[in-house]
């Protein structure tokens, strides 16, 4: 079996020096462990579940904790409802270490810590904008942070050396550190992460009782818009509860928009109804245009759709021949209709490479299903 948890062989020295303690051996904690260990960092793991801890250690995410451990950095990667408790425990047990957490909500844990009157000088909240639909140590990957934003919530009392250590962690994992206040972070993730989860779940719920014949027509659009609906309900109840206010505000505005669109659809012949629909789609276009692309760039790509036979090695051959044509694949989506003996590979390339890709692949016998107009 191919080991997908490990990063490529070490190519540079780690910025983080010393031992890193990771508390929580689930998806994020184990992924951090794998990435740091690939750089030669000593990683110790702790988890409330002995079985989860043993599994993460077996997969190579770190080693068991020892009484003599003196970590320089502690990463708390536990569910939001126990984040504050674990931070308190770690700050108390290791007063000389810098403690950060990777919880997806920042303001509520900070307020809880402040209510307890703890010295938070060496605590810095942070949050990598990375993850997968499946959790646990078995799903961990060393590369899930690469190219992703890593929010760091410092304040005026944060020592420069502590901030540098947390930012070094993000950089070692291939992420891009971004400074925000906890309030800014929670409002931002309400819009770009938490509300999309709810919208995807609500849409996917429509499929639960849909006729089987309808579901046979599902294409890539439905899969794209509902992919994250496979996420764990237990975790998301905690996340949404901790960020209820900002998420509720976004949902209320979205509900107003949905109400207006529904009204236009009930009587599309009403003056202005068709314009309302067109404006809705256009605003969506504007929003998509603002989303950062590969490596955070606002760079647009064109899509070339290639028919790929449903046979071993075909996708690898496609990538290999694109490499021979000196065409870089910026992104990839695959669609496979039920019962079809081929799939559709939507390859994203820079606009200047479209003709080169189409002509080169056609000459090599590939069938092009769609090219940019």
Structure report:
- This protein has 373 residues and is of the alpha/beta class.
- The protein folds into 3 domains: 20-180, NAD(P)-binding Rossmann-like Domain (Rossmann fold, 3-Layer(aba) Sandwich), CATH 3.40.50; 188-266, 6-phosphogluconate dehydrogenase C-terminal fold; 300-370, ACT domain (Alpha-Beta Plaits), CATH 3.30.70.
- The chain has 13 helices and 12 strands.
- The strands form 2 sheets. Strands 3-2-1-4-5-6-7-8 form an 8-stranded mixed beta sheet, with helices on both faces. The chain has a 4-stranded antiparallel beta sheet with strand order 10-11-9-12, covered by helices on one side.
- Helix 3 crosses helix 4 (107-115) and helix 6 crosses helix 10 (244-266).
List the SSEs and their pairings.
Elements: E1 20-23, H1 27-38, E2 43-46, H2 50-58, E3 63-64, E4 73-76, H3 80-93, E5 98-101, H4 107-115, E6 123-128, E7 149-153, H5 160-172, E8 176-179, H6 182-205, H7 212-215, H8 220-226, H9 233-242, H10 244-266, H11 273-290, E9 302-309, H12 314-324, E10 331-335, E11 342-349, H13 354-363, E12 367-370
Parallel strand pairs: 1-2, 1-4, 2-3, 4-5, 5-6, 7-8
Antiparallel strand pairs: 6-7, 9-11, 9-12, 10-11
Helix pairs in contact: 3-4, 6-10, 10-11
InterPro entries: 6-PGluconate_DH-like_C_sf, ACT-like_dom_sf, NAD(P)-bd_dom_sf, PDH_C, PDH_N, Preph/Arog_dehydrog, Prephen_DH
Family: Belongs to the prephenate/arogenate dehydrogenase family.
Pathway: Amino-acid biosynthesis
